[in-house]
Amino acid sequence: MTQVEIHQDGWPTYRRKVRFDWSDTPLHWVPGDPFSTHMMNVLHLLLPAGERWFIQVVNEAEPMVDDPGLRAAIKPFIQQESWHAFAHQLVLDHLAEQGIDTTAYTENLQKWLSRLGDQRPNWPKPLQRWWLYRRLAVVAALEHFTAVLGQWVIQNGGLDYAGANPVMLDLLRWHGAEEIEHRSLVFDVYQNLCGNYLLRASTMLATAPIFLFRWLAGARFLMARDPTVDAKPRWRDWLRAARQYRLPGPWQLIVTAQLRYLRPSHHPSTEASTQMAMEYLQHSPAARAARERAKG
Question: What is the span of the domain harbouring residue 259?
Fold first, then answer.
């Protein structure tokens, strides 16, 4: 492998202004497999609002961070997350053009996150600080899952073997690579401001079921609005797709990933590989095109 220089393992370097052309991407971009297509499409539902909420929480925490290097790494993290939200929003626009209006789901998610994201200015100062710590712990838990997903989508060839649309694969792998690149940032901000293990662990135990529920609800929402299918998602469909390496399995995604996070000694730098992520970004068609545009 070619050695790629990084400035700090698990912290972001810079934003890559990638662009994707969805004009030739079919509705079922995993051919003949609407279930796997829509299970992965749930990411487009969750991420625009989710990434913006991550930014809000980290922006609130940034003035309190006393590590200069960590504080400096927050800006590229926010830039990367904002571009992720933008890129996935364009996929939602493409789904709307294909007959799947996602507004009801995304508006409901946005309202829920808005309530969760409120700073509670009328609370006493100690409770305000605890509420910030709790929200940082939620973001750190979700960033753990996005790093796990990033590793899976980069390393796994099942979607390639299924003939999945290469533009969609590049989007998912570019995003996954950047999630791996900055996987330690929010965790380290949490450790810098609070570091309480019991709060971190209890937050993961509360967050993981919500994450799973939102994902399954999103898949059900998309399949119900797909004008070309008349089926509901079933657990056996997920297990089948996992056996075909088209999706991460529920045990792999939720249970084993969660157990690793719950170790008191856990640090995100042990999840995935920055080197692997950087090597993908060197070869990603969208990332290469972004580098060329930046030069011009």
Answer: 34-295
